[in-house]
Amino acid sequence: MSSAVCRLAPSPTGAQHLGNARTFLIAYWSARAQNARLILRIEDIDSPRIKPWATEQAITDLRWLGMDWDGDPIIQTERSPLYDQARNQLMDAGRIYPCSCTRRDIEAAASAPHESEASGWTPDAPVYPGTCASWKNGDPLPEDKPFCFRFRMQATPDRFFDRVHGEVACNPIQDIGDFPITRKAESAADCLAAYQLAVVVDDIDAGVTEVVRGDDLILSTFRQLQLYEALGHSPPSHAHVPLVTGTDGRRLAKRHGDTRLSHFREQGMPPETIVRWAAKTSGLCPDSDAAFSDRTLDQIHQQMIDRFDWVRIHRQPTIVDDFGSTTD
């Protein structure tokens, strides 16, 4: 096994669908092509949105599609001490501050999301106007109202190389702004880690060297790059794969019909059908490969592992109308 470490990281906020499956399969093929250690991490840190049945179903979905991993699953909600330690490190370095602003406060103070003239990005959330940013270590914490801890963004790093999209750049101050690394609570001890901090701490702890995920998370990567730097660690490489969307150009949801993996499994669809579709629509297997349709699940996986190269991965989203009829 090489020194490379990759990860599958489903979030049990609902059922896994075709888009999730393709991203996980690409991550799996890349990991096995590198002879990397592959970990499974259950990203259940967003407790209010977690569905109690979704973790077991996600594991069943991944195994049904022929994927495996090394070691036991890592569960984020069991790792609070690590996140608290990282938060304390950021506090000591002056990189975070308490913020009691409500979403309504931020939306009222921030301008509407707009496309940056410099980078072409539309912010994925209202850019924080800095209302609480004057706080410094030693100042009192907010009283009588809940607060989170917010990370101070800097002007750099403002670019990174993505294995699918090439060099990606943004203006971190203008396009992103300071962001929360904890959820709100009425005391610092009760401010539990939020997604951005948890994933960085987990990747550092596991020694992850490659992150594969959907390209709707590119702006989150800029947030996480600054967290890596503030915590004193080099970031992994990143590959943001195009989304699978409906005909309206939006990522898959209930409005696009039932694209849940559990639905296809219950309907008797063989997993090979989905894995072949993922291989073809990702760009790894040309439609002209007639023999591809006769291969077993293990043979399909081995072929994709043998063929894997990031230069083959498509940069454009795949549009799904009725599954079985897709357009690149």
UniProtKB/TrEMBL annotation:
Co-factor note (free text): Binds 1 zinc ion per subunit.
Any one GO BP annotation for this protein: tRNA modification
Chain residues that bind Zn(2+): 99, 101, 128, 132
Chain ranges for the short sequence motif 'KMSKS' region as given in the UniProt record: 251-255
Binding site for ATP: 254
InterPro entries associated with the record: Glu-Q_tRNA(Asp)_Synthase, Glu/Gln-tRNA-synth, Glu/Gln-tRNA-synth_Ib_cat-dom, GluQ/Sye, Rossmann-like_a/b/a_fold
Record's signal peptide: none
Keywords: Aminoacyl-tRNA synthetase, ATP-binding, Ligase, Metal-binding, Nucleotide-binding, Protein biosynthesis, Zinc
Listed EC numbers: 6.1.1.-
SUPFAM superfamilies attached to this UniProt entry: Nucleotidylyl transferase
Cofactor(s) needed for function: Zn(2+)
Flavoprotein keyword on record: no
GO cellular component, one term: cytosol
Domain Glutamyl/glutaminyl-tRNA synthetase class Ib catalytic: 6-288
Binding site for L-glutamate: 7-11, 43, 195, 213
A Pfam entry, by short name: tRNA-synt_1c
Motif 'HIGH' region location, chain numbering: 10-20
Keyword flag Aminoacyl-tRNA synthetase: yes
GO molecular function, one term: ATP binding
Gene3D superfamilies: HUPs (3.40.50.620)
Role noted for this protein: Catalyzes the tRNA-independent activation of glutamate in presence of ATP and the subsequent transfer of glutamate onto a tRNA(Asp). Glutamate is transferred on the 2-amino-5-(4,5-dihydroxy-2-cyclopenten-1-yl) moiety of the queuosine in the wobble position of the QUC anticodon.
Listed name of the protein: Glutamyl-Q tRNA(Asp) synthetase
Source species taxonomy: Bacteria, Pseudomonadati, Planctomycetota, Planctomycetia, Pirellulales
